[in-house]
Amino acid sequence: METGTAQKKITLGFINDKNPIADIVCDDLTNLGFEILYRSEHIEDGITQLSALKSLPQVCIIDLDFYDSNVLTELRKLRKKYPSVKLIAFSEKDSEQSVKTLLNIGFEGYLLIGSDTDDFKKAIDVVTNSGRYFSVGIAKIAQEYFTDN
């Protein structure tokens, strides 16, 4: 006889612009029991893949390429079309402008390059429970943003 209740798997989408670190984290999260519903290399492809899914992932982790001139337009499109999907950024950019731009779009989390699988797991757990999660290096920027807004 089984006791207790089965915990529902948290579902994820990964948009990764060929970052091998993000690939390793994705594989590690799969091994921890998270279900990866899709992986894509570009935001536009990710939006297309999302529209083909029967059920949306709870969280989408996006390795951001700020050198792509269309990235912010695509992120706004993603947020508008799928407002229920929690967004976590993964980036090397820790400037106030970069962080605040993503918070304005509606990102719930922001992890800096160097974050490990435990950081990703914590971020996913927090944002799926209606919280926000930020790497230590940008937490002050996020705190100021939410204090002012």
TrEMBL record:
User: Where in this protein does the record say 4-aspartylphosphate is found?
Assistant: D63
Does the record's keyword annotation contain Transcription regulation? Answer: no
Keyword Phosphoprotein attached: yes
Q: Which residues form a coiled coil?
A: none
- Could you list this entry's UniProt keywords, alphabetically sorted: Phosphoprotein
Single biological process term from Gene Ontology? phosphorelay signal transduction system
Could you tell me the superkingdom of the organism this chain comes from?
Bacteria
Q: Response regulatory domain location, by residue?
A: 11-128
Descriptive protein name: Response regulator receiver protein
Q: Which organism is it from?
A: Pseudopedobacter saltans (strain ATCC 51119 / DSM 12145 / JCM 21818 / CCUG 39354 / LMG 10337 / NBRC 100064 / NCIMB 13643)
